Amino acid sequence: MAQRTAIPSGTRDFLPREMLRRNYIFDTIRTVFKQYGYVPIETPAMENLSTLLGKYGEEGDKLLYRILNSGNAFAGVDPSDLANNTLLSAKVCEKGLRYDLTVPFARFVVQHQQDIVFPFKRYQIQPVWRADRPQKGRYREFYQCDVDVIGSHSLLYEVELVQIVDAVFTQLNIPVTVKINNRKILSGIAEIMGAADRLTDITVAIDKIDKIGQEAVLNELLNKGITETAVQQLLPILTLSGANEEQLTRLSAILSASTTALQGIEELRTIFNYLEILKLGQKVELDLSLARGLNYYTGAIFEVKSNEISIGSICGGGRYDDLTGVFGLKNVSGVGISFGADRIYDVINALDRFPEAAMEHTKVLFLNLGQKESIKALECLKELRAIGISAEIYPEIAKMKKQMEYADKKAIPYVVIIGEEELNDNTLSFKDMRSGEQKKSDLKTLLADFSC
Asked: What is the crossing angle of helices 371-386 and 443-451, to 10°?
């Protein structure tokens, strides 16, 4: 019986057509990152669990993929430990697959602090893994395209990141809305609710408002022991509406007793004032329900959603003032944004907006009609490739119909035919597979046409 081939749920194979489109996204994002002065780094797929645990909150820790220690990992494990998953995991797993690129980046900065220049502006495009329940737009293995700057408190970097988001999605032809909030405001809300020590519970619940609705969020807070009085104080904040400045003004009055919240409001006001001057093409708005449940955010937080496809956030990030502190490097502030390449792919695909250029691969196929003809074709191929044109030759002598069908199936736009007649008069027969037009020319003319 043949073995059934399959891949783990939540992972995917990518065919050439898909990879060409994915590379179009990666190349667009990478080009914008470089235009703003960011440099590339890479970190290992796996990190020590001591690096990862405790950085994403309780819910994030549950989604970490743990790697079984090599060798006899269970040697020395007491049978009584088998009933305690947490204890057992700690004994047999020392490493895990990275959950995101930000925490490994913080570890990288601390480890290489003598080798980099602060403020350090880096980008990183690599896969991450989460033991999540697979569903539309949510995978267990997916790519993140991160851009971060660490070593500065300047709000100009928040502004720059929004500019990067604007540039990327404008170039990808995806209308989006950039939602912005500030964790200091959320801390202030917790303070006036009389629940400053319950900030994590409050932000985790608020962060679900788009998924489960306002009423369910309020019920979740009540179920977690937040008082009815405190929950009612949250309601008018979550229902604020109007222009960004209008909401900030009203929020200043509501949260006037919280110095922390007022600081967050002023930070947002500064960011919005800069963005107003820059006149970006994409929509930018204040969203007080935006919480982003990761514990390490301390200032401005961002989330980006498509205006045309409902798929959740396709980009998100924020300010983290002391993420490197847990690794021994105190008081180093950073801010960054992560682009979800897989969801971006799904959005462009659903909208059918991948440009033809994203599908370019082999541009010219030389038919193989005999040994002498193939030698001439190889000489021409060398010249075409030298000017950057992707070209290939059919590997075997075969009927012209079969070779043409090969070009058609691979969507190769041009075919060059060198037969006995072409050899004798030193010409090439050049066929446009899309229009069906065929003409004769010499190699010099062909090279000149492709150079234009």
From this structure: 30
pLDDT tens column, 43-86: 999 999 989 988 777 778 889 999 888 877 677 776 766 666 66
Kind plus residue range of the DSSP H or E element containing 403: helix 400-409
Distance of CA 325 to the CA centre of its chain: 25
What CA–CA distance (Å, rounded) separates 32 from 337? Answer: 13
8 Å CB contact between 291 and 186: yes
Tell me the pairing of strands 334-340 and 313-320.
Answer: antiparallel
Structure tokens at 63: 């989604």
Q: Report how far apart, in Å, the C-alpha atoms of 22 and of each of 83, 343, 358 are.
A: 44, 11, 9
Residues 6+ apart with CB under 8 A from 69: 92, 93, 94, 95
| Structure confidence by residue, pLDDT tens digits, 381-422 | 999 999 999 999 999 999 999 999 999 999 999 999 999 999
Q: Which residues pair with 365 in a beta bridge?
A: 392, 415
Using an 8 Å Cβ cutoff, are 447 and 384 in contact?
Answer: yes
Extract long-range pairs of 322-331: CB within 8 Å, 24+ residues apart: 322/298, 323/55, 323/102, 323/103, 323/106, 323/296, 324/106, 324/109, 324/110, 324/150, 326/54, 326/55, 326/106, 327/51, 327/106, 327/107, 327/110, 327/111, 328/110, 329/109, 329/110, 329/113
DSSP per residue, 178-189? EEEEEHHHHHHH
CB 319 within 8 A of CB 297: yes
